[in-house]
Amino acid sequence: GQNIDQPTEMTATEGAIVQINCTYQTSGFNGLFWYQQHAGEAPTFLSYNVLDGLEEKGRFSSFLSRSKGYSYLLLKELQMKDSASYLCAVRDSNYQLIWGAGTKLIIKP
Amino acid sequence: ETGVTQTPRHLVMGMTNKKSLKCEQHLGHNAMYWYKQSAKKPLELMFVYSLEERVENNSVPSRFSPECPNSSHLFLHLHTLQPEDSALYLCASSRLLETEAFFGQGTRLTVV
After folding, report:
1. Given its phi and psi angles, is residue B28 left (phi above 0), alpha (psi -120 to 50 degrees) or beta?
2. How many contacts does A have with B, using Cβ atoms within 8 A?
3. By the CB < 8 Å criterion, does A25 face chain B?
4. Residue B99 pLDDT greater than 90, yes or no
5. Within chain A, where are the H helices?
6. pLDDT tens digit string along B46-96?
7. What Cα–Cα distance (Å) separates residue A105 from each residue in A6, A75, B103?
8. Chain centroid, CA A58 distance in Å
9. What is the pLDDT of residues B45-59, one digit of tens each?
10. Does A26 touch chain B (CB under 8 A)?
């Protein structure tokens, strides 16, 4: 079967750095997405990786290793507004998106 | 504001009711999606439309019936639902099937 694994919950301190991991087992690979979802709101697109390596976008970076079936989202200089759920999703060989259950990130002062 | 609007935001319905969820996108996208989001579970893809043609139906019960009259509008018709259908229903659109999706705020559905 296909599955995406990510930690259920993480806690970090304001101003610090946190890394949210995502491992996947899918039938084929056509890209990996990270989304942010604040409580009661719509998921919003953060990043897209299709080739191995690091994609940097401001305070957020996303890394992909296709051989290891592994990605991480790195958040730097954490702010209270970064408290949210972070969803990892992989597009398989049929271009269907397979979603993880999300990682709830709690930021403490 | 993502450019994808869903109505209503909240809906409570009995098991014998018939209701419809509406989604509208103002982004000029060609693909639209219905997802179900339950607490602590992954997003479940229900239906996909590309250029107004249904391309995906992931074994969704027939009590859920989608309709895509044009590339900007998507409906989800509901009838004789069960309490376990209570969830957040999210609509999304993308320029192409391969590109990132933009989500609406969702409809919080409670079946009583």
Report:
1. left
2. 41
3. no
4. no
5. none
6. 999 988 888 876 689 999 999 999 999 999 999 999 999 999 999 999 998
7. 12, 11, 20
8. 15
9. 999 998 888 887 668
10. no
Contact A107, A36 (CB under 8 A): no
Q: In this structure, are residues A98 and A30 in contact, taking their beta carbons and an 8 Å threshold?
A: no
Q: What angle do CA B36, B47, A47 make, to 5 degrees?
A: 70
Residues recorded for chain A:
109
CB contacts, 8 Å: B98 with chain A? 30-31, 91, 95
Higher pLDDT, A41 or A87: A87
Instruction: Please give the pLDDT value at position B57.
Output: 66
User: A20 has which bridge partners?
Assistant: A73
Structure tokens at B96: 């192409």
**Mean pLDDT score of chain B:** 92
Interchain proximity B4–A42, CB inside 8 Å: yes
The answer to whether the bond into A43 is cis (omega within 30° of 0) is no
Please tell me if residue A39 touches chain B, with a CB cutoff of 8 Å.
no
More confident call, A46 vs A41: A46
Tell me the C-alpha distance between B13 and B8, whole Å. Answer: 12
